[in-house]
Specification:
By secondary structure, this protein is of the alpha/beta class. It folds into 2 domains: 200 residues, Formyl transferase, N-terminal domain (Rossmann fold); 64 residues, no CATH class. It has 8 helices and 13 strands. Helix 1 crosses helix 6. The longest helix is centred in the middle third of the chain and has 24 residues. The chain is globular, with a radius of gyration of 21 Å. It is an enzyme of class 2 (transferase). Its EC number is 2.1.2.9. This is methionyl-tRNA formyltransferase.
């Protein structure tokens, strides 16, 4: 399988985790397609995607198109491909492009489809109404792409039960990324050989995720503590959970960096007040007084 010409489409951290699993099995892609550099951080420094950084480190050529339909990109991409792999790319890819490879296009999705279709399956899984501290079932799906979002036939699935739910967002991303990568490298040879018959999803059981925004992480300290704790876990990397409070006569945004849930109570441990460094929540409260 090392002679397969594979183009990998991805942008986020979970994409890199899947790529690492491919490399372990000698399935190094011939090309990476990722999002172009974006402004990030307080200084709004133009920064390449994590996948572009990974590709450079592994000496793999990378394309960063602003427009997938552009003649320049399509010429650079070419048509001599055995397989496309998509894992959290972040853009809609035209059907004409998806059909280019000899063996089509496989997508790695971090949920058990048809559950949690859409762009935020990891955060949405954490936000679901599930008991704190109890086991929770989730998993990954390898699927074909069609005209609708996460609607295509299932090629492979792997379920996993996670104890002490919920995991933090980054932890769940690592767990499902690794699980998806391992499942992918097992699936590719079977798929290319024609040994797998895709299975249609049960569309009547489909659920859908919402697009997360910078305001999605807002919590209210007098709200349901379980729901607020799940928010803190879900948004531990972006957009970060935060609450608003009045300090010195002005509304202040306070980011929650660490919290725990004990005996039905949400306990805040560490916070970053607007314009300040990270501190213990108790120190923040003393300063506010």
């Amino acid at each position: 399988m090392t002679d397969l010409r594979i183009a990998f489409w991805g942008t986020s951290r979970i994409s890199v985790i899947v790529l690492d699993e491919m490399v372990k099995e000698g399935m190094l892609p011939s090309l990476v397609v990722t999002a172009p550099p974006r402004q990030k951080g307080r200084g709004l420094e133009v920064t390449p995607s994590t996948v572009k950084v990974w590709a450079d480190a592994h000496y793999i050529p990378a394309l960063e198109p602003e427009e997938i339909k552009s003649e320049e990109f399509l010429k650079s991409l070419g048509a001599d491909w055995d397989l496309f792999i998509i894992a959290s790319y972040g853009k809609i890819i035209p059907r004409s492009v998806l059909k280019l490879p000899k063996h089509g296009t496989l997508n790695v999705h971090p949920s058990l489809l048809p559950k949690l279709r859409g762009a935020s399956p990891i955060q949405s899984a954490i936000l679901e109404d599930a008991s704190v501290g109890e086991p929770h079932d989730t998993g990954v799906t390898i699927m074909l792409i069609d005209e609708e979002v996460d609607h295509g036939d299932i090629v492979a699935q792997k379920a996993i039960s996670i104890s002490n739910w919920p995991q933090k967002g980054r932890e769940l991303e690592e767990t499902l990324g690794e699980l998806g990568g391992k499942l992918l490298v097992k699936t590719i040879p079977l798929w290319v050989s024609g040994s797998i018959i895709p299975k249609e999803q049960d569309h009547n059981k489909a659920t859908f995720t919402k697009k997360m925004t910078s305001g999605s992480g807002q919590i209210y300290l007098d709200d349901d503590p379980v729901r607020m704790y799940r928010k803190i876990c879900a948004f531990d990397t972006w957009p970060r959970a935060y609450f608003m409070t009045t300090r010195n006569g002005q509304e202040t945004r306070v980011v929650v960096t660490k919290a725990h849930f004990a005996d039905g109570v949400l306990v805040l441990d560490r916070v970053i007040p607007e314009g300040k460094k990270e501190m213990a929540y108790e120190d923040f409260l003393r300063g506010r007084k």
